[in-house]
Each structure stands twice: as C-alpha cells, then as structure tokens.
Design a protein that fits this description.
117 residues, 4 helices, flat
Length: 117
C-alpha cells in the first residue's frame, strides 16, 4: 500500500511553486511584461501536484522529471555564477532542494503496488 501522507506532502510541495509562478506571471502582466515561461510552468507544477495527490504513477514520474530538470538548470546557474565570480547561494539552495525532492521520490515511501522494491 502506498504511503498517502508522503504523496500528499509532496503534492503540497509542488503546489507552492505553482502559486509562486502564477504570482510572478501576474506581476509581469501588471507591469506590461508577458512572462510566458512562468505562465507555462504553472500547469506543469499543478499536474505534478494533482498526480501526486491522487497517488498515480504518472504524477510521481512527472514530478521526478521536473525535479531533475530543475536540478540541471540549477547546476547551470551555479556554474555560471562561479564563472562570473559570484557566490551561487540561491542556485545551490535550489539545486539542493531539487536533489532532495528527486531522492525522496525514489524512496520506498513512494513505491506503488506492482513495483519491485
């Protein structure tokens, strides 16, 4: 039996960035900028949250893909900051968060019936 509490907690963790991304897009629209990237990301985070909340395999898979993609982008941000001579504090925090999420999604608490763990 899957651990519903783990899936629901992770779903909440994916709703939070969706809200931030929507707020970022709305602020951009208010200032006359169209933040297309921000507005396109929100449905992806919401889909992750919905799939995790419903304890579905596709939700966990999508959340893992999103976390690993964010980790790759954070790594590029960190490398860019290091090459520019800056301290990559934000990039390191974002990378660590996404690494922790990706690791958590591969743990037995997120195993679904029929998976050999």
């Amino acid at each position: 039996m899957p651990n519903r509490a783990a899936f629901r907690t992770m779903a909440v963790l994916f709703v939070l960035p969706a809200l931030v991304v929507v707020a970022w897009g709305v602020v951009g629209l208010r200032d006359g900028r169209v933040e297309v990237g921000a507005l396109m990301l929100a449905p992806v985070y919401v889909a992750c949250a919905a799939g995790l909340w419903a304890v579905r395999r596709w939700g966990r898979t999508l959340a893992l893909v999103v976390s690993l993609t964010n980790l790759a982008l954070a790594t590029l941000t960190v490398l860019s900051a290091i090459l520019a001579g800056a301290v990559p504090t934000g990039g390191l925090a974002f990378a660590a968060l996404n690494l922790a999420i990706a690791y958590a999604l591969t743990r037995p608490a997120f195993a679904l019936p029929g998976e050999g763990q």
